[in-house]
């Protein structure tokens, strides 16, 4: 069986005490490990801002353990390590092939480099795009969606195709793991959607999660479990 060492990071001690950011990361890693049939041997938690990797004691401990025991280092999302390309390549050099990020299963050097470049701009671009789109719709007085253009037949067909696509989507598999955990803890649908969005998850269409999309994922997961 594969063996993982997980690394969870939040930016402040307050976030560490609240546990919300950590729970999200832990849920993703646990779900990924289940899919990959791997065991999580040790978990390292660090509450520190995005400093250089040498100044993160828990991170360095995790790397040392992985190199000594030949375990695989795993994080829920690449930006939990850093949004700095140089830092990410340092980690890749220290860990070699024993490195996984749940949002980037293939971590060869070229793929990692390309992803790291986009990661640096991801948050800013999403923020700008969302703000501009919402402002434009607000000025035009538009409402979301135009259901009058669809017949019941096309709605049913489209719904079936979307369900099949969503079930196969790896991003939704990871999100479903988080949702299952939050649902057990009786989070509201709105709170779950907010956590998914804050953590960088998007729907199959690349949209932000909302109450409805979270509800549909829960429903789909139940359908899968009963088949």
- Largest sheet composition: 4 strands, parallel
Strand order of the largest sheet: 2-1-3-4
CATH class of the largest domain: Alpha Beta
> What is the fold named in CATH at topology level of the largest domain?
Rossmann fold
The parts where pLDDT drops under 50 for at least 5 residues are: none
Give the domain tally. 2
Structure description:
The relative contact order is 0.11. It is built from 9 helices and 4 strands; from the N terminus they run βααβαβαβααααα. With 227 residues, the chain is an alpha/beta fold. It has a 4-stranded parallel beta sheet with strand order 2-1-3-4, with helices on both faces. The protein folds into 2 domains: 2-113, Resolvase, N-terminal catalytic domain (Rossmann fold); 147-226.
Keyphrases for this structure?
Rossmann fold, 2 domains, alpha/beta, globular, four-stranded parallel sheet, 227 residues
Short summary:
This protein is of the alpha/beta class and 227 residues long. It has helices spanning 13-18, 20-35, 57-69, 85-95, 109-140, 152-168, 170-184, 189-198, 211-226, and strands at 2-10, 38-47, 72-75, 99-101.
């Amino acid at each position: 069986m594969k063996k993982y060492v997980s690394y969870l990071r939040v930016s402040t001690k307050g976030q560490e005490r609240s546990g919300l950011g950590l729970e999200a990361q832990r849920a993703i890693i646990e779900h990924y490990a289940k899919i990959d049939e791997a065991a999580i041997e040790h978990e390292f938690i660090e509450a520190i801002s995005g400093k250089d990797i040498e100044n993160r004691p828990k991170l360095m401990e995790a790397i040392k353990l992985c190199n000594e025991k030949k375990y695989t280092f795993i994080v829920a999302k690449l930006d939990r390590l850093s949004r700095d390309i140089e830092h990410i390549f340092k980690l890749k050099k220290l860990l070699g092939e024993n490195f996984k990020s749940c949002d980037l299963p293939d971590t060869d050097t070229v793929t990692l480099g390309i992803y790291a470049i986009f990661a640096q701009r991801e948050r800013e671009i999403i923020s700008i795009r969302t703000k501009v789109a919402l402002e434009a719709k607000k000025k035009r007085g538009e409402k979301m969606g135009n259901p009058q253009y669809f017949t019941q037949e096309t709605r049913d067909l489209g719904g079936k195709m979307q369900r099949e696509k969503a079930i196969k989507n790896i991003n939704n598999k990871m999100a479903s793991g988080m949702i299952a955990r939050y649902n057990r803890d009786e989070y509201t649908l709105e709170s779950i959607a907010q956590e998914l969005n804050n953590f960088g998850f998007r729907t199959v269409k690349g949209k932000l999660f909302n109450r409805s999309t979270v509800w549909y994922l829960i429903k789909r997961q139940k359908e899968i479990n009963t088949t």
